[in-house]
Design a protein that fits this description.
The complex is a heterodimer of chains A (463) and B (110). Chain A is an alpha+beta fold and 463 residues long. Helix content of chain A is 54%, strand content 16%. In chain B, a hairpin with a 2-residue loop joins strand 1 (14-17) and strand 2. Classes of the chains: A alpha+beta (463), B alpha+beta (110). Chains A and B meet through helix 8 and strand 6 of A and strand 5 and helix 4 of B.
Chain lengths: 463, 110
């Protein structure tokens, strides 16, 4: 069952129960009050009747009842029962009317002159014993409580209709509100369904405000960002590996094929084997470098965030470039270091950052045919910039806006081996660190990539 | 205390000075049982100064040995790095073992 339905039902049951309890209580108390009121009036009339009975000697019974008839409000369908009691054994000596249950009469006798009430469905009775001149009597007045029974019946009907209407209304309103509440969640679900391994660059629409839904959306998007990075890191590794490993492998296979094509002298074999060993060694080194580069894609160290020193990062990028592209001309250029090292430190994932900068530097080497590449670090207030500039082929201006799209490759890059993974990955990583990449390029002259990163406020870090 | 005796034998990979242990193989600096976090360049600088302890080394020597030739550094990089290192050692140990020899360079006095 959907949470939406559950919430609605729960809400309806809860509200309906409260409503029911309220209604029943109100009905019960009104009913009770109506009965008590009627009983009082009945008792009063019974008392007067008894009085008339008592005064029998002076007035005629008929005369008294005339007065009563005239001056007191007669109750509907009023009846009076006067039962004589045998003074000897207290039994009722007169005939007992069918309407009166024996139990009730017994109660009256035991009540010692106090009024005892009884009611059948519509008819109310008030009775008591009283002492006449010589005998005891039971005086019972009875009447129907027409007015209030009718009222109670109406009240009952109204209450039942009211309750049914209320439940329907509560359910409808509840359904509406739970729909409204869960709409963003359903939106998220339908959006999330569209995101799969093939289009990990898609994101949920960020919600406005700072409620749980907005938080959920941004958390989900952050998770997607990390996932995409991990995915791309893997692709990046495969892409780099297939490229960097192909050259030495081809050389090894070629050399071996050449040596095996016919019988050769021992010196020839030795030379071939030396050649193979040389290429294999290079292969080993490249593999090592690639693994260091792609470490985050394969280990779970992607989660470790700590303080990164950016100057050290550049030195390390240079070092890993040296293993992968031995004849590179990358120059680390840090014109001035701030006295406070916090100005070149930021919180982040070292391996990821290194991979991002490495990708850009390797691209710079690749697309310039190993011309000099400058790797600079500049600080400006709370902003640090890493600037990578090359003398490569450049990127056509109208294509600059596409360069962060996965698998996009500029039109002039076809003669270079690549998959269009490195820069989108770097962009992702930099975005994870709240930074920005800015690329400016002139075709044929070179490209300058600027990575702007915010560092933590020095005042905060000084404590 | 047992380490005191071994110190001489392990000198190539572990140097102790001012109660600070520098392990060259593990690239660790330990004071009072706790590691002091240094970047690898800072460590290289400390290692170079330690290998030349009680000797004055000038800025060019440091630049060449610690940074190498591929690094187009500003002239103040050595001074800045010595200051980073000094600051870290000072905050963690309360000591200032690196001395500036005006006009010549730096010296780590043990």
């Amino acid at each position: 069952m959907k949470i939406q339905t559950k919430t609605t039902i729960l809400f309806t049951i809860l509200t309906a129960t409260i409503f029911l309890i309220l209604n029943v209580t109100v009905y019960f108390f009104i009913n009770e009050y109506a009965h008590r009121d009627f009983n009082k009036r009945l008792e009063l009339r019974a008392k007067i009747s008894a009085q008339s009975q008592f005064e029998k000697d002076e007035f005629s019974n008929q005369a008294f009842s005339d007065i009563q008839w005239k001056y007191l409000e007669k109750l509907p369908e009023e009846q009076v029962f006067i039962l004589e009691l045998d003074s000897a054994n207290g039994n009722i000596s007169s005939e007992i009317p069918k309407a009166l249950p024996a139990k009730y009469l017994k109660e009256i006798k035991e009540a010692n002159g106090n009024t005892v009430y009884y009611h059948s469905r519509y008819r109310h009775y008030a009775g008591f014993t009283f002492q006449g001149h010589k005998d005891s009597f039971i005086m019972i007045k009875s009447a129907t409580n027409e007015y209030s029974s009718e009222m109670m019946q109406w009240l009952r009907i109204i209450k039942i209709i009211q309750f049914i209407c209320a439940v329907i209304l509560i359910y409808t309103v509840g359904l509406y509100f739970s729909r409204k509440t869960f709409k963003p969640i359903r939106d998220i679900i339908s959006n999330a369904k569209m995101i799969s391994g093939g289009n990990l660059h898609l994101r949920l629409k960020e919600q406005e405000g700072s409620d749980e839904i907005a938080e959920l959306t941004s958390t989900f998007n952050q998770m997607l960002g990390k996932l995409e990075t991990a995915f791309d890191a893997r692709n990046n590794f495969i892409s780099n590996a297939s490229h960097e490993l192909r050259t030495p492998l081809t050389a090894i296979i070629g050399e071996a094929d050449y040596a095996l094509s016919k019988d050769r002298t021992a010196a020839d074999y030795k030379q071939s084997l030396e050649e193979i060993a040389q290429h294999a060694e290079k292969l080993q080194q490249v593999t090592k470098g690639l693994f260091a580069l792609a470490q985050t894609g394969f280990t779970n160290s992607a989660g470790s965030w700590k303080k990164i020193r950016l100057d050290q990062l550049l030195y390390d990028v240079k070092e890993s470039c040296d293993t992968i592209i031995p004849n590179n001309q990358v120059h680390v250029d840090i014109p001035s270091l701030p006295a406070d090292e916090e100005l070149i430190s930021l919180n982040g994932n070292y391996e990821l950052m290194k991979m991002a900068v490495n990708n850009i530097v390797i691209n710079a080497c690749k697309y310039s045919g190993n011309k000099p590449v400058s790797l600079q670090l500049r600080t400006e207030g709370n902003q640090v910039s890493i600037i990578i500039s090359d003398e490569g082929i450049g990127i056509p201006e109208e294509e600059l806006k596409h360069i962060y799209e996965p698998f996009y490759r500029a039109s002039n890059s076809k003669s270079f081996y690549g998959h269009g993974i490195g820069l989108p990955l770097a962009n992702n990583i930099i975005r994870l660190h709240k930074g920005r990449i800015n690329v400016s390029s002139t075709v044929g002259k070179g490209t300058e990539v600027t990575i702007g990163l915010p560092v933590e406020a020095p005042a905060m870090m000084l404590r | 205390m047992r380490r005191q005796g071994k110190k001489q034998a392990d000198e190539e990979e572990r140097i102790m000075f001012d109660e600070i242990t520098v392990n060259f193989r593990a690239k660790e600096v330990i004071f009072d049982g706790k590691p002091i976090a240094l970047t690898s360049t800072e460590f290289k600088l400390l290692e170079f100064l330690l290998r030349n302890k009680n000797k004055v080394v000038n800025r060019m020597e440091i630049l060449e040995k610690v940074w190498g030739i591929d690094f187009n550094m500003g002239t103040n990089v050595v001074d800045v790095y010595v200051n980073y290192l000094r600051k870290k050692l000072l905050t963690h140990t309360g000591k200032k073992p690196i001395q500036t020899i005006i006009g010549m360079g730096y010296m780590l006095k043990v």
